[in-house]
Amino acid sequence: MVADATGASLANTLCLDSRLGRVETYLAEDVPAWIERTLQVDRDHAHWAIGGFSFGGTCALQLAVRRPATYPTFLDISGQQEPTLGSHAKTVQAAFGATKPSSAR
Fold first, then answer.
1. pLDDT single digits (tens) 68-99
2. Calpha distance 65→2 (Å, rounded)
């Protein structure tokens, strides 16, 4: 199964819960609940894995680290070095509405 964590072809949600969306919750709670309700799958999450390329790989790594009870195994193929929207400042501002203190600029 492939879940859409972006909502648009050029969107970047950073694969976390932020002002950009509740993507971590969607992928770690909503999607697994739908899978268990709808598909014939092993419900033992110890047998589940998540993976992806580029953004998807970064997202898989994040979810495996933050939600290991849901996704104990992951595959990151060519993932980003870190979730980013271009720069650290732009990423923090877009996701959390925060900026660095003026003395740190």
1. 999 999 999 999 999 999 999 999 999 999 76
2. 20
51: Cβ contacts below 8 Å, ≥ 6 apart = 57, 60, 74, 75, 76, 77
Give the three-class secondary structure for 9.
coil
Q: Where are the domains of the chain?
A: 17-104
Q: How many beta carbons lie within 10 A of that of residue 44, not counting itself?
A: 7
Give the residue carrying structure tokens 């970064």: 58
What is the value of pTM for the model shown?
A: 0.84
Strands (E), the chain: 17-18, 21-22, 49-53, 73-77
DSSP code at position 17: E
